[in-house]
């Protein structure tokens, strides 16, 4: 037998001996394409012995708590793309984990497609379009707190879908609208507005922990809840808060009462979802009524 052939056979035998028993290929379950601003539910099926799970998306990462199954580990995350940040084209979602002492990665490409969103014109008090200079420090401080809250990264598993509807009212303003205040383009709507008379109980969309509460210049009385794996829900313009930072929350638990605090034209609830700071449209993954 030629030396080259013997070496080839020897390498094959050594590979079989060294290969860990029960090894399993990881598999990502994700849509082939998604529209910018819309949610993505992505799953990873990994070897039973795997640990230390992370997901990477749009240059950001989140830690994941897996769900052990009989023969594998299951990770599930709800991701999103912010209309203001994402661009059409191919993006890759990557999962990383430890298996048999080795850090491994597996990824899948997703085609991000452009989606058109409507616009609306609103009339508000002039001071709410151009706040008084003495409020600048407050507004900047609140914006910093909000950014830190929506970028929270704690381990977790995607919440049960569909999400609990925070209030029963219809949607009065959709995600992604270009918002003209007193004729000036000032923002793109980062969530959905839901009809809610003052005093309507506001329910948490999913299990989680309150990461921030406040009475902000723009958002009024508001609550941020972290659900793990980078997912945050936001509830704004309430009249009363009935929770506090650090409290564990169950899906459907009342966290406050709706109102018209902050920059509003009338009573309603503003509800938003964000993944590591990327706000996306929550409507399609919420209960209908």
Level-2 CATH architecture of the largest domain: Distorted Sandwich
Low-confidence runs? 1-23
Rg from alpha-carbon coordinates: 23 Å
Count of all domains: 2
Q: Which class best fits the helix and strand makeup?
A: mainly beta
SSE succession: HEEEEEEEEEEHHEEEEEEEEEEEE
| CATH class (first level) name of the largest domain | Mainly Beta
**At the fourth CATH level, what is the homologous superfamily of the largest domain?**
Glucose Permease (Domain IIA)
Tell me the helix content: 10-25%
- Global geometry: globular
Return the CATH topology of the largest domain: Glucose Permease (Domain IIA)
Helical segment tally? 3
What do the pLDDT scores average to?
Answer: 90
* Total number of beta strands: 22
Q: In whole angstroms, how far apart are the ends?
A: 75 Å
The main sheet comes to: 10 strands, antiparallel
Strand coverage percent:
35-45%
Brief account:
This protein is mainly β and 289 residues long.
What does this structure look like?
This protein has three helices and 22 strands. The protein folds into two domains: 111 residues, Immunoglobulins (Immunoglobulin-like, Sandwich); 167 residues, Distorted Sandwich (Glucose Permease (Domain IIA)), CATH 2.70.70. The chain is globular. The strands form four sheets. Strands 11, 14, 15, 16, 17, 18, 19, 20, 21 and 22 form a ten-stranded antiparallel β-sheet that branches. It has 289 residues and is mainly beta.
């Amino acid at each position: 037998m030629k030396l080259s052939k013997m070496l080839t056979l020897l390498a094959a035998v050594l590979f079989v001996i060294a290969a860990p028993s029960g090894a399993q290929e990881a598999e990502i379950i994700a849509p082939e394409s998604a529209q910018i601003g819309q949610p993505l539910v992505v799953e990873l099926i990994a070897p039973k012995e795997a640990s230390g799970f992370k997901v990477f998306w749009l240059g950001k990462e989140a830690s994941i708590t897996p769900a052990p199954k009989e023969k594998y580990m299951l990770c599930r995350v709800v991701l999103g793309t912010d209309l203001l940040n994402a661009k059409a084209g191919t993006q890759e979602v990557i999962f990383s984990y430890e298996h048999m002492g080795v850090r491994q990665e597996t990824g899948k490409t997703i085609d991000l497609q452009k989606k058109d969103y409507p616009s609306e014109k609103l009339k508000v008090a002039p001071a709410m379009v151009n706040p008084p200079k003495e409020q600048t420090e407050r507004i900047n401080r609140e914006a910093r707190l909000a950014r830190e809250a929506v970028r929270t990264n704690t381990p977790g598993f995607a919440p049960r879908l569909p999400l609990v509807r925070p209030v029963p009212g219809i949607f009065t303003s959709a995600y992604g609208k270009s918002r003209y205040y007193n004729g000036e383009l000032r923002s793109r709507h980062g969530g959905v507005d839901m009809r809610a008379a003052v005093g309507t109980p506001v329910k948490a969309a999913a299990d989680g922990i309150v990461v921030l509460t406040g009475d902000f210049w723009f958002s009024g009385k508001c609550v941020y809840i972290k659900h793990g794996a980078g997912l945050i829900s936001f509830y704004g313009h309430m009249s009363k808060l009935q929770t506090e930072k650090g409290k564990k929350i169950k899906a459907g638990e009342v966290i406050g009462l709706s109102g018209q605090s902050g920059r509003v034209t009338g009573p309603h609830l503003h509800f938003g979802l964000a993944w590591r700071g990327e706000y996306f449209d929550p409507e399609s993954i919420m209960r209908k009524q």
